[in-house]
Design goal:
Strand order of the largest sheet: 3-2-6-5-4
Helix content: 25-40%
Order of helices and strands: EHEEHEEEHHEEHHEHEEEEHHEEHHHH
Shape: globular
Strand content: 15-25%
Radius of gyration: 24 Å
Structural class: alpha+beta
Number of strands: 15
Length: 517
């Protein structure tokens, strides 16, 4: 979901480059990323592709274990505290407490290898610099930075100088060993200069998931890069000082540009914050409504799904959109929106995953058993290169029809926000109607936590086709985790959008039943 950016100009004037906040953030922001790089120094415990696969396996095992023990994967990393809000400021509810916009910005450039035969990605700019770290922190930071270069240029070393290159924006996720996640936002473009030259990548690492907002920030970074690399620093420093706005609110950033004066850039966060990392338009541009439904069915049962495309932006947007269709549930398994070439063996993993793979690597997807292989490219011969064959019968037929009917209303959506709302509502209602009665089957006592009565839960479903689906769905890790979190909560009304939709649906059914009698 896009974040709106508006500008207004002030008279030209100098800005103060000095920050009142240290560049060294508080807390430990170390990433145990599931990636290896060609330049990993000797002494690492793994080597090459097998080592990367081992680390992925360990990472996700730890992630699932931590979630079962009651940890929160999304908020596990302790975020640094932003600038304090003074008494003279407006309501603190305008801001998301204790969050920076980003952790750091890096520029990744392609540099010739020593023998001059190929290129390798290297970080040529980093803001803020990390000074005063302990040795182990510095070592972990180096691993993270190497992983970032890998995801910024997942194609590997096969690059040649270019005279034209259309900039592209995409995202990826860095997952730590404890399961906490950080988002990587990347824009690749051709740097200034004359003649043929390799592209470079700008990458922002943040705990905040808001693709549209960071895409707008990249517009500002790119504009300043065209003037001078030195112009990026004051803008990013001002952004780092700013408190991250709460949903529906705006933060203003003052930034000086030579010959233009001081600009006031307004960054607005979408009101539907749980969809702000998603743009469903790309998903429905690549796939028909019926095809989306088949992908959703496979994802709901936590199957192995690989998406194929030429463009990195399409891969990252589609895979995040598919994951968002599962709300209020969360994908619990391997999730790599763009698989770097060196990690392509991850497709051999027997466990569930959502993977994005560049089309040129299609012939390396060797294991095509029990797999849904989805081609997103414009020139595809068929959408599903490989499928199990039962995807069309996973969801109850009546509910499939209702989803398709609800999706048809998106033709009336005039904005990205409206489109996202229509699509999310269609799939949210599916879960409301199939498992929305879960709370009635969690029993609490004075001394113990809640206990979910699984058998009574699915026996309460009247429709045989819906009951058949639910009996399969309750065996997934996403449902298991959802129920475990409910069991650990105190008895009382549930909170959140999903529960509100459940109450609305139950009230509607009760009203209809009363009318019949």
């Amino acid at each position: 979901m896009s974040g709106a950016v508006t500008r207004r100009r002030k008279e030209a004037g100098p800005t103060n480059p000095k920050s009142r906040w240290s560049e060294q953030p508080k807390g430990n922001h170390i990433s145990g990323v599931a990636a290896k790089h060609n330049n990993v120094p000797p002494g690492e415990e793994e080597d090459g592709r097998q080592g990367a696969l081992k680390r992925i396996s360990a990472m996700w095992s730890s992630f699932r274990r931590r979630r079962r023990e009651g940890g929160d994967a999304e908020g596990a990393a302790c975020e640094p505290q932003g600038p304090a809000t003074t008494a003279g400021n407006t309501s603190m509810q305008r801001y998301a407490s204790g969050q920076y916009f980003f952790e750091y910005l890096v520029v990744v450039s392609l540099k010739k290898t020593k023998d001059g035969s190929s290129y390798e990605p290297q970080i040529t700019y980093q803001f803020p610099k990390r000074d005063g770290m302990a040795r182990f922190q510095r070592e972990e930071e180096e691993k993270t930075l190497k992983a970032i270069t890998l995801f910024c240029f997942p194609e590997g070393i096969n690059w040649a100088p270019l005279t034209e290159y259309h900039s592209e924006t995409f995202s990826f996720v860095l997952t730590e060993i404890d399961g906490s996640r950080r988002n990587g936002y990347c824009r690749r473009l051709l740097p200034g200069g004359k003649g043929a030259r390799p592209p470079e990548a700008y990458c922002i690492i943040s705990s905040v998931a808001c693709f549209g907002l960071f895409s707008k920030i990249f517009d500002e970074v790119e504009k300043r890069r065209q003037i001078s690399m030195a112009m990026i620093y004051p803008f990013m420093q001002k952004l780092r000082e700013a408190s991250f706005p709460a949903p529906g609110n705006t933060v203003e950033i003052k930034s000086f540009i030579p010959e233009s004066g001081t600009e006031i850039i307004s960054l607005t966060r979408p009101l539907d914050s749980w969809l702000e990392h998603v743009n469903f338009a790309t998903l429905f541009h690549c796939l028909t409504d019926n095809e989306v439904l088949l992908v959703f069915a496979a994802a709901v049962l936590e199957r192995r799904i690989v998406f194929i495309a030429d463009e990195l932006g399409i891969l990252s947007q589609v895979i995040h959109a598919v994951a968002a269709l599962l709300y209020p549930f969360t994908w619990q398994h391997t999730f790599i929106s763009i698989v770097p070439e060196i990690l392509i063996d991850v497709v051999m993993a027997p466990t569930p995953y959502l993977l994005g793979v560049q089309k040129r690597l299609l012939d390396q997807v060797d294991d095509q058993t029990d797999l849904l292989l989805v081609d997103l490219s414009e020139d595809k011969e068929k959408t599903f290169i490989v499928s199990i064959g039962d995807e069309g019968s996973i969801l109850p037929p009546k509910l499939q029809t209702e989803i398709l009917e609800a999706l048809s209303h998106r033709e009336n959506a005039s904005t990205t926000e409206e489109l996202n709302r229509v699509v999310s509502e269609a799939f949210l209602q599916f879960f409301v109607k199939t498992v929305g009665h879960y709370a009635s089957h969690v029993k609490y006592s004075c001394k113990t936590r809640g206990v979910f009565e699984k058998r009574k839960f699915y026996k309460a479903i009247e429709s045989k086709t819906t009951r058949h689906f639910v009996k399969k769905f309750i065996q997934t890790q996403m449902f298991d985790l959802f129920i475990q979190e409910v069991e650990q909560q105190q008895a009382g009304p549930q909170q959140g959008i999903f529960h509100r939709k459940v109450l609305e649906y139950q009230a509607k059914k009760k009203k209809e039943k009363t009318k019949k009698h």
